[in-house]
Write a structure and sequence with these properties.
The structure is a single chain. The protein has two domains: about 130 residues, no CATH class; about 90 residues, no CATH class. The chain is about 40% helix and about 5% strand. The protein contains nine helices and four strands, in the order E-E-E-E-H-H-H-H-H-H-H-H-H. A hairpin with a 5-residue loop joins strand 3 and strand 4. The longest helix has 19 residues.
């Protein structure tokens, strides 16, 4: 986000992929996905009232233009005109609260607690989103479902037709048995319990294999780990 309102008639917005009627991205002749700039939604004041992040259409200087981070913060009562837009390399000092406009703005409740598009879309369809730690595939059984699907997918005849590929993908995703999903989820809980006991990745993997049918590990797991290392 820019600190000040953009000049020369240019506005600031978020780049969003252009989709066709089927929800697929649209590409230009060079194969690059088309994007369009859209205005971001309103923020919120401490009293619950909406805060428009763009000047109104009848503004004398910048009609319908993005206000800039400094103005947005000053409307909340902060003094931000003398601050940098952002710290160098986006690396703010540890425990800093007002080092730059970006850090202050992104820690405001209406920014830090805003619902993601994924959450909004799923909630509208009656689903709850659970966020798991990044890059921990053993804590997300969907990865094991993907592995099951890919193993089945490799058994299908090779094809370069997009329709065949899409059809095969849908078939293998539907082929994962519910019993297998439950088994994968049980292993997930076993890994989680292992980490709660203080096990490292190698130890948690060993415990998960030994107690794969259990959601939690026995209270003697640490003693068993020590015996395993001795043997």
């Amino acid at each position: 986000m820019p600190k000040k309102p953009p000049r020369n008639g240019h506005n600031w917005g978020v780049a969003v992929a252009v989709l066709d009627g089927k929800g697929n991205p649209v590409f230009d002749p060079n194969g690059k996905a088309w994007c369009q700039s859209v205005c971001i939604g309103d923020a919120m004041f401490a009293d619950g009232g909406p805060q428009c992040l763009y000047f109104f259409k009848d503004h004398l200087v910048s009609p319908s233009i993005f206000k800039g981070m400094a103005v947005i913060l000053e409307e909340h009562g902060y003094s931000a005109s003398a601050l940098w837009a952002e710290c160098k390399g986006f690396k703010c000092p540890k425990n800093a609260t007002s080092c730059c406009c970006r850090h202050m703005l992104y820690n405001e409740p209406d920014f830090s607690e805003v619902e993601s598009l994924l959450e909004t879309t799923c909630k509208a369809r009656g689903f709850q989103v659970l966020f798991l730690p990044k890059f921990h595939c053993e804590l997300n059984f969907i990865e094991q479902c993907w592995g099951y699907s890919k193993r089945i997918y490799r058994q299908y005849p090779i094809s370069s037709k997009e329709d065949d590929l899409e059809c095969n993908v849908l078939k293998v995703l539907d082929s994962v048995p519910m019993a297998s999903m439950c088994w994968f989820a049980t292993q997930l809980w076993c890994f989680m319990d292992g980490y709660l006991w203080g096990l490292n990745g190698k130890q948690a993997t060993w415990a998960s294999k030994k107690y794969g049918g259990h959601r939690v590990l026995p209270e003697t797991i640490m003693e068993e780990i020590e015996l395993e290392l001795v043997d």
